[in-house]
């Protein structure tokens, strides 16, 4: 191999490695893409939404980095979530799994759901009925009641309820420990969240970042090879939306 070809090959390898390091740094310290695989955050987030997670919003822990490889405990440059933030976190019982839910309980809070209504520190959170919605699971059409929920800090967002008598519509009182957060999905009757033993309270160290903005969304009507359907499957009106 000539010296010129060797130098060219070396430059190519160096460029690829450099580009990989830039991408890794961007993903670890600034923004990480995340897609919505389930309906637990409907109506705020839909299956097929793609969003950017702000990694610097809460500081950095080992889970800010791919595969949790960072060799330190706790958080550095820590900032705390606000009530109402939509956050991505690693499941406490299985850190390989990432979840996205809404922060409703802060350290020291007492959280309870009574007849479908969220209570924070023994005070019912205000919700305003907005109307009915429906969705299909591929077999049945289900009806929901849509509410605007207003948290104690004034943060407002939409939730939906099938009824106020589902399994997790009446819970015991949960006391949120220090350095932990209580997470709930906006699709209240179809969300595995802090009300369940599978998730429970989320340690601050397991926070990945805050969900900030949608950059793409599709309705699943087009398979990857059905390029002629792509223009009709994209939810153009959601692209660029902020997440509240």
Describe this structure in words.
The protein has 244 residues and is mainly β. It has a single domain, classed as Umud Fragment, subunit A. The protein has two helices and 14 strands, in the order αββββββββββββββα. The strands form three sheets. The chain has a seven-stranded antiparallel beta sheet with strand order 1-2-14-3-4-12-13. β8 and β9 form a beta hairpin. The model has no long low-confidence stretch (mean pLDDT 87).
Kindly summarize this structure in a few lines:
The protein is mainly beta and 244 residues long. The protein has helices at 3-29, 230-233; strands at residues 31-35, 49-54, 86-91, 94-105, 110-114, 117-120, 123-124, 126-136, 141-150, 156-161, 174-175, 180-184, 202-203, 207-217. The protein is built from two helices and 14 strands, in the order αββββββββββββββα.
């Amino acid at each position: 191999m000539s010296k010129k070809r060797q130098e060219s090959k070396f430059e190519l390898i160096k460029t690829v490695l450099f580009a990989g390091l830039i991408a890794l740094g961007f993903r670890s310290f600034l923004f990480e893409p995340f897609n919505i695989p389930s309906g637990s955050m409907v109506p705020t987030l839909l299956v097929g939404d793609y969003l950017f997670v702000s990694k610097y919003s809460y500081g950095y822990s080992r889970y800010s980095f791919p595969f949790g490889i960072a060799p330190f405990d706790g958080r550095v440059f820590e900032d705390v979530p606000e009530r109402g933030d939509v956050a991505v976190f690693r499941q406490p019982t299985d850190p390989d799994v990432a979840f996205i839910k809404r922060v409703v309980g802060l350290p020291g809070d007492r959280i309870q759901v009574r007849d479908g209504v969220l209570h924070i520190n023994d005070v019912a959170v205000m919700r305003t009925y907005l109307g009915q919605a429906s969705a299909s699971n591929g077999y049945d059409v289900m009806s929901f009641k849509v509410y605007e929920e207003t948290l104690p800090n004034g943060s407002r967002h939409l939730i939906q309820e099938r009824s106020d008598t589902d399994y997790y519509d009446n819970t015991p009182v949960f006391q949120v420990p220090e350095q932990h957060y209580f997470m709930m999905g906006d699709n209240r009757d179809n969300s595995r969240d802090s009300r369940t033993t599978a998730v429970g309270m989320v340690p601050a160290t397991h926070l990945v970042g805050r969900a900030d903005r949608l950059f793409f969304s599709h309705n699943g009507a087009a398979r990857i090879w059905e390029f002629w359907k792509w223009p009709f499957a994209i939810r153009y009106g959601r692209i660029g939306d902020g997440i509240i």
